[in-house]
Amino acid sequence: MNTAPVVSVIVPAFNASRWIGVSLDSARAQTLRDIEIIVVDDGSVDDTPEVVAELAKRDPRVRIIRQENAGVGAARNTGILAARGEFIATLDADDLWNPTKLERQVQRIGQCGERTAMVYCWYKTVDEDGDELASHFPFTVEGEARRAIILRNFLGNASVPLFRAKALQQTGLYLTRKEQGGVQGCEDWDLSIRISEAWEIGVVPEVLVSYRQSDSCMSMGAASMTESFRLVMDRARRRNSDLPLVLFRWAEGHFQSYLVSKSYGSRDYRSCLAAVARAIGCDPVMILNWSLHRMTIKSLMWLVSGKRRSHPRRERRRAEPNAAGNPLPPDKSLLGRVQERRWMRVVEEKN
Predict the structure, then answer these.
(1) Which of 42, 65, 324, 338 lies 20 to 30 A from 179 at CA?
(2) Neighbours of 267 (CB within 10 A)
(3) Is the CB of residue 212 less than 8 Å from the CB of residue 94?
């Protein structure tokens, strides 16, 4: 490849041989063909490098960089520093892209103009077999989004955004595991916040990413995620001292309620109970969340019984915007109404 590609795709990989082949196939199948795919092998001890090498033989757009294990943030940074594209998109080694994902995002960022540095899209979660678990709330925030992205990481995961490379040069790259004191998990949220502090964002209102959920995925590690979250929010608070402290408390309450369901789903009942306590402690309105009550009771029962039971497959669910276009789920409960009012107030406030 003698000319710079439009998009550089960065794929961090650590012991990812189970899914990296299909993930790279989803990148190689993009309708936007002018791309490079940089896989950063982060010290894998399985046959991840061999899988990537085989694909590279068939597709010259694929190349691999190997390094000692340093964590997902450092791996993404290695790839970004080696990238030549005008735009950067990261793809985790177990996630999947719709074929039009990059084309639609590049088109949208061009429509939004030079002040837009990041474009996101919608996503769905899938299980280990690739079967859909849920389509997630279709957020539609665009333009100035500093307050909204602090309150809630509406991008959802690191395989969603497309960045302008020059914006990353100005704002800095991902936090590394070392910079987070040995934990990781919220470095993608940190980068999105920093981008939103200085730039505008855009959205492609289509489900273009499949976000894989398994017991081994990083987002299941409640303790590491909590420490990473707090470090990210401490940094954001120092940079955004003009914002009210309550915004950060609401953010942690929502984040901890997310960890409740993650811990419960992976049958880590002690972490589930700890996250319930943190969620309510940060935002007392979370006591109105009956789902937290249900998971608390069941976690206590299973801890007392000493059994770790398998949970039935979750039913598929979809959420549509309400009549006002607000992307929160159609929840008519008291908690739902409170959260909807909060969200709309925060979104409507400008930087």
Answers:
(1) 65
(2) 16
(3) yes
